[in-house]
Specification:
CATH class: Alpha Beta
Number of helices: 4
Number of strands: 8
Structural class: alpha+beta
Order of helices and strands: EEEEHEEEEHHH
CATH architecture: Alpha-Beta Complex
Number of domains: 1
Helix content: 10-25%
Oligomer: single chain
CATH superfamily: Nucleoside Triphosphate Pyrophosphohydrolase
Largest sheet: 5 strands, mixed
Radius of gyration: 16 Å
Distance between the termini: 45 Å
Strand content: 25-35%
């Protein structure tokens, strides 16, 4: 079944931030490529958002609803545009970017349950636990602001006592533009 692309050209997508409950998150390596990212995937027409998230969770990292606790999701769609060189001009409908609803999940099962080989064409071939803000540095550049927004919005759920850790020393000032004003100061 095809993914849903809206009238503005944005592909509906779910993103998954999986925490181990100690402040670290799962970052997965793209199969056969050097890139790293959170698990994510397209929403099919008429598919409920949470159902799409659980389908992608199982397809990409082999976990089911029994293996995780849903801690929350972003309130709105977070959007990014694809750089012109990544837009497939001859596809129909034309996709110019993605709008994503992000979910924060806590792993309940043993980490050994993570499997990357549940489909004939796995999305990922490696994974690791990383510090909370590390994915912002490792994801492809045009997704960084969405990662900042999702991690910032869901951070209070991941760190209910004190909120998310401050941005790390390596964080360039320009990334702070993606944060709400009160967090950037």
């Amino acid at each position: 079944m095809a993914d849903f692309i809206d009238s503005e050209g944005y592909r509906a997508n779910v993103g998954i931030i999986l925490t181990n409950g100690t402040g670290r998150v799962l970052l997965a390596g793209r199969a056969g490529r050097p890139g790293w990212q959170f698990p994510q995937g397209g929403v099919q027409p008429n598919e409920p958002i949470e159902a799409a998230m659980f389908r992608e969770l199982e397809e990409e990292i082999g976990l089911t609803s029994d293996d995780v606790e849903v801690m929350g999701q972003t309130q709105e769609w977070l959007r990014y545009r694809l750089p012109k060189r990544f837009v497939r001009r001859h596809s129909s409908p034309l996709c110019i970017g993605q709008k994503q609803r992000w979910f924060l999940l806590r792993l309940l099962a043993d980490p050994e349950r993570v499997r990357l080989d549940t489909t004939t064409e796995p999305e990922f071939d490696r994974w690791r636990w990383v510090d909370y803000w590390r994915p912002v540095k490792e994801v492809i550049y045009f997704k960084r602001q969405v990662y900042v927004q999702a991690l910032f919005e869901l951070g209070p759920l991941a760190f209910p006592a004190d909120g998310p850790p401050p941005p790390p020393e390596w964080w360039p000032r320009r990334w702070q533009r993606a944060l709400p004003r009160q967090a950037a100061s």
